[in-house]
């Protein structure tokens, strides 16, 4: 079946020929889109740990995290042909999918109720924040990202970590940090812009 | 107001917007080039934060995922983007739909300000939107956006807006009665005379229903809504509430 696909003109999707040249994630995704299971295994080896690690950071529960990781990777397999390089990198396509699914799970009905109670209780709120902050500090392995986070103001960093790793909405973040909504909204944006400039992200 | 909308880009890139504001911002994104560029960069940045959290997954997970892929069919590639025929009727329709949507966006913003809290209904809606993995902003911004009206027995007709090139669409209706705990509304797309399930949905507390659908839009002849037992049905069993030729 893959043999019948017109490969001409789809250069950007083609993996490098067998050589030492590193295959980009985008290249692998192109092979995956054509049903190449070996390429999918390689792709898993590249991003599986990132997906699992992020999902587990947000969800905590290992069993649920495995479940979501499986859902995300299968979605990558299923929809690889819909990946559009013009709209972003393969890594961000996959990580966005992973983060959204994890956050959806967190914000499911029951969890939302629990979290509202937690936010409403001052002690609970502080405990939740401590756990997140400590966990983030310990687990951040990438030097570059850690340094970039270190360049942020305290409020920028806390807000971004709670929102992204904690899976909280900015309204909940404002509640947790006891800061005005507008301030948190602005800090999330200018903090992320600063991270972008430090890390040197290009689309 | 405008500056305020732009400020949501950070929270949006971090998936930190409540559903109502997320929908509002996505409609804004469809019309704001500067925001689209900024969001793309901030999403890449967030992905770096995600990658930094990497952790070794259990070995068994790899085998399970590869085995699951082995028995999962893949989606075909989307058709190449071709400029939509600049037919005046299409353009007028799109213009009307967009104006109407701006109205909805404004309403949602008012509701958001009024409530100041996330309702369970809105959460459900967000889940449905994400479950279908539909980029609503992109659908509404599609050059070949088309709209058909469905008479749902409500004051204003429901609208199904869809893009054949994206193979995605979204049904929006207002003033819908709650189907109750035991029942759900289900969307269908009819292909060659056979209704294909296109997702279940229910109106929120204010009677607004949003049902995104991906993958079975192109080539569908009819869009329809039925009332089904909770959880939905593989083939329609209930009363047809509304349908429209596509």
Describe this structure in words.
- The complex is a heterodimer of chains A (203) and B (246).
- Chain A has 203 residues and is mainly α.
- Helix content of chain A is 70%, strand content 0%.
- Chain A contains ten helices and no strands.
- Chain A is globular, with a radius of gyration of 19 Å.
- In chain B, a hairpin with a 7-residue loop joins β1 and β2.
- In chain B, strands 1-2-3-6 form a four-stranded antiparallel sheet.
- Helix content of chain B is 41%, strand content 22%.
- With 246 residues, chain B is α+β, with helices and mostly antiparallel strands.
- The longest helix of chain B has 28 residues, at 88-115.
- Chain B has helices at 2-6, 9-13, 19-31, 33-51, 59-70, 88-115, 120-131, 136-141, and strands at 146-150, 158-163, 168-173, 183-191, 194-201, 209-214, 222-229, 240-245.
- The radius of gyration of chain B is 19 Å and the shape is globular.
- Chain B contains eight helices and eight strands.
- Chains A and B meet through α2, α3, α4, α7 and α8 of A and α2, α4, α5 and α7 of B.
Largest sheet of chain B: 4 strands, antiparallel
Rg over CA atoms of chain A: 19 Å
Helix content of chain A: over 70%
- Proportion of β residues of chain B? 15-25%
Largest interface, with counts of residues having CB < 8 Å to the other chain, equals: A-B, 79 and 56 residues
- The global form of chain B is globular
Q: Which band does the percent of strand residues of chain A land in?
A: under 5%
Structural class of chain B: alpha+beta
Query: How many strand segments of chain B?
Result: 8
Series of H and E elements of chain B = HHHHHHHHEEEEEEEE
Helix content range of chain B: 40-55%
Oligomeric status of the shown chains? Answer: heterodimer
Structural class of chain A: mainly alpha
Number of strands of chain A: 0
Mean pLDDT of chain B: 76
* N-to-C CA distance of chain A: 33 Å
Give me the strand/helix succession of chain A.
HHHHHHHHHH
Evaluate the radius of gyration of chain B: 19 Å
Gap between N and C termini of chain B = 37 Å
The overall pLDDT average of chain A reads 80
Low-confidence stretches of chain B are 86-131
